[in-house]
Design goal:
alpha/beta, five-stranded mixed β-sheet, 4 helices, 5 strands, about 30% helix
């Protein structure tokens, strides 16, 4: 569910390059990278990039409530979707093994083919995928 209370489906973005970023409210590195993600989205959205921030939990290890999603977007001036990833459901699909470290990134090409799974995405990775047609 996104900050507007709507369910967001990954398959709705299969015509775009998608950067999924798994984060948590309490995660300092997640908070530090949020402005960079907002910048990447604003820079590359017209070339086909969609950034989706998955907030897995709040500081009490509970699913991120809607008001926290709004607070996250306001704090970092984010225009891309920020959604609650209840029980780490979406994140677990892209993580190899049982241990999850955050922040973690997943870069998907058009058609939702995974290019980078459970890793760190750099701006040149995005530029490369977009230049190859997504």
């Amino acid at each position: 569910m996104d900050r507007f209370g709507r369910d967001l489906n990954l398959h709705d973005f299969c015509d775009r390059t998608v950067l999924l970023v798994s984060s948590a409210e309490w995660c300092i590195p997640c908070r530090e990278e949020a402005p960079m993600l907002a910048d990447w989205y604003n820079t590359y959205k017209d070339q086909g990039l969609m950034v989706i921030t998955l907030i897995t939990e709040n500081a009490d290890n509970e699913p991120a409530p809607q008001d926290m999603l709004w607070a996250w977007t306001d704090a970092f001036d984010i225009e891309h979707p920020v959604v609650s990833d209840v029980d780490w459901e979406v994140t677990r699909r892209f993580v190899d093994g049982k241990n999850i470290s955050i922040p973690t990134m997943h870069l998907l090409r058009r058609g939702l083919y995974v290019d980078i799974r459970d890793g760190e995405v750099h701006e040149d990775d995005i530029q490369r995928i977009l230049s190859e047609g997504g």
